[in-house]
Amino acid sequence: MDSGNDKGTRVSQPPPYSEYPGPAPQPQTYVAAPVVMPVVVASRMGPEPTPFVCKSCHAQIVTRIETKPTTKTHLFALLLCVIGCWPCVCIPYCVDSCNNTNHYCPNCNAYLGSYDS
Ligand SMILES: [Zn+2]
């Protein structure tokens, strides 16, 4: 006994109306920026012995420096060789600005930072 009168009674519902009441007013909370005291960053030191608090032994020390030739130093020397300035080859190794200055703690020999000009 199929009446055949079974029409699809699916009513296409309209999309539910958005109850969203517009953009909510966002409270402007200004978070006070915490005042951060400037911290001496160990990675940026000068080419000279610097007063510093050692990270290892926490002593107030003046760093002990060691200058070491860097790749740039060797490149300068090589360049001087190439252009024929043999007597000048040693100059890059003598000029501090061509060398890397490493800072060490005189107490515990901890590496504290370096200065690369
Ligand atoms: Zn130390």
From TrEMBL:
- What terms describe the molecular function in GO for this protein? zinc ion binding
Any one annotated GO CC term: lysosomal membrane
What is the first-listed, main subcellular location in coarse terms? membrane
Q: Which InterPro entries match?
A: LITAF, LITAF_fam
- SMART domains cross-referenced by the UniProt entry: LITAF (SM00714)
User: For the LITAF domain, which residue ranges apply?
Assistant: 31-117
> Which keywords belong to this entry?
Membrane, Metal-binding, Zinc
Identify the PANTHER family for this entry. FI16615P1-RELATED, LIPOPOLYSACCHARIDE-INDUCED TUMOR NECROSIS FACTOR-ALPHA FACTOR
Compartments, as annotated in UniProt: Endosome membrane; Late endosome membrane; Lysosome membrane
Topological type in the membrane: Peripheral membrane protein
Pfam families this protein is in?
zf-LITAF-like (PF10601)
Pro residues compositional bias: what residue ranges? Answer: 13-25
Q: Where is this region: Disordered?
A: 1-25
Q: How is this protein named in the record? A: LITAF domain-containing protein
**Which source organism does the UniProt entry give?**
Arctia plantaginis (Wood tiger moth)
Q: Which family does the similarity line name?
A: Belongs to the CDIP1/LITAF family.
